[in-house]
Design brief:
Elements (H helix, E strand, L loop, with lengths): L1 H4 L3 H27 L7 H33 L4
C-alpha cells in the first residue's frame, strides 16, 4: 500500500519537467497573442508569465545540476 502512495524520483522529476514546459508554453502563447495585438492580453501579463517561465527554468536547471553532482560524487566513491 505504501509503495503506491509514494512516487519515485523519476516520476517527480518528469512531472517537474512537464510543469516547466507548460509554463514556458503559456508564456510563449501570451507573448504571441500580445505581438498579434490581442486586446485581452496586456504587457503586464506577458512580463509576469515570462518571469515565471524564467524562474521555473532556472529552478529546474539547479535541480539538474545537483542531481548530476550527486551522481558524480557517487561514481567517484571508492568501492
Amino acid at each position: 500500500d505504501q509503495v503506491r502512495e509514494t512516487s519515485n524520483f523519476s516520476d517527480m522529476l518528469g512531472k517537474a519537467v512537464n510543469s516547466v514546459k507548460d509554463v514556458q508554453q503559456q508564456a510563449g502563447a501570451l507573448q504571441t497573442a500580445y505581438d498579434m495585438g490581442d486586446p485581452n492580453v496586456d504587457i503586464t501579463r506577458v512580463m509576469i508569465a515570462a518571469q515565471k517561465s524564467s524562474v521555473s527554468f532556472e529552478a529546474l536547471t539547479q535541480v539538474r545540476n545537483r542531481v548530476v553532482r550527486a551522481y558524480e560524487d557517487i561514481m567517484n566513491m571508492p568501492i
